[in-house]
Amino acid sequence: MLPLVALVGRPNVGKSTIFNALTRSRDALVHDEPGVTRDRHYGFCRLVEERPFGLCDTGGLSGEEEGLAGATARQARAAVEEADLVLFVVDGREGPSGLDQNILSFLRKSGTRFFLVVNKTDGIDVQAAVAEFARFGVERVIPVAAAHQRGIPELLEEIIPELPEDGDADVLADDPDRIRIAFIGRPNVGKSTW
Ligand code: GDP
Ligand code: MG
User: Fold this and answer.
1) Which residues surround ligand 2, an ion (CB under 5 A)?
2) pLDDT digits (tens, 9 = 90+) for 75-125
3) What CATH number is associated with residue 99?
4) Fewer beta carbons within 10 Å, N or C terminal of the chain?
């Protein structure tokens, strides 16, 4: 099964923009209004042809546990649980927020590996933006400007070696929208190689 990478972060930091950049689609909703994506949203990244992986966009963790925001947060947590790797996305222009801090502690407790992706670094001092997040103590910090496709190849270069050859993406079975494809054929014709 394919490895699975989940995008997590507070609303409006650019998770869906990164999803689009990695899947090269306009599939994920990108919207100015925080909290537009309510659900988990799956896609595939095939930018490195021989190492495809599943990608899960989430609606973001807004810190609220009630109603729709709470449901969204539960979806995001479920995504973290099923993922092989999490991209914790933050806003390089706004700097760290209390909500980022909460997400950080949640991710640490989850035990799932994660990178810190500092987005929206276009037109600002990238080093300074990254330094703002130094106190988070995350080993792997990757600056990007997803809306301008900047940093995406570097991000991929960091992601690929972290992924297991055989990932957890069979949990895509949880997604009612997914398309099921079965590979059928006699032994040795290349079913698994695909
Ligand atoms: P999400 O809520 O985390 O999924 O965030 P979205 O992907 O919907 O983006 C929220 C807003 O940030 C949109 O207005 C995007 O156009 C904007 N945005 C996303 N990436 C960048 C970036 O790299 N630079 C800048 N300046 N804006 C961005
Ligand atoms: Mg979104």
Assistant:
1) 15-16, 37
2) 788 889 999 999 999 999 999 999 999 999 999 999 999 999 999 999 999
3) 3.40.50.300
4) C
In a domain, 146, yes or no: yes
Which ligand has an atom closest to residue 15 CA? 1
Summarize pLDDT for 121-138 with one digit per residue, the tens.
999 999 999 999 999 999
Residue 8 lies in a domain: yes
Note the pLDDT tens digit of each residue in 16-64.
999 999 998 665 556 655 555 556 788 999 999 899 999 999 876 776 6
178 within domain boundaries: no
Helices (H), 93-151: 98-110, 126-131
Asked if 72 contacts 21 with a C-beta cutoff of 8 angstroms, the reply is: no
With vertex at residue 61, the alpha carbon angle to CA 55 and CA 67, rounded to the nearest 5 degrees, is 115
Indicate the number of domains in the chain: 1
Q: Is the CB of 13 within 6 Å of ligand 1?
A: yes
Q: What's the average model confidence in pLDDT over 138-162? A: 97
For residues 14 and 37, the answer to whether their CB atoms sit within 8 Å is no
Cα 11 from Cα 61, distance rounded (Å): 7
pTM here?
A: 0.82
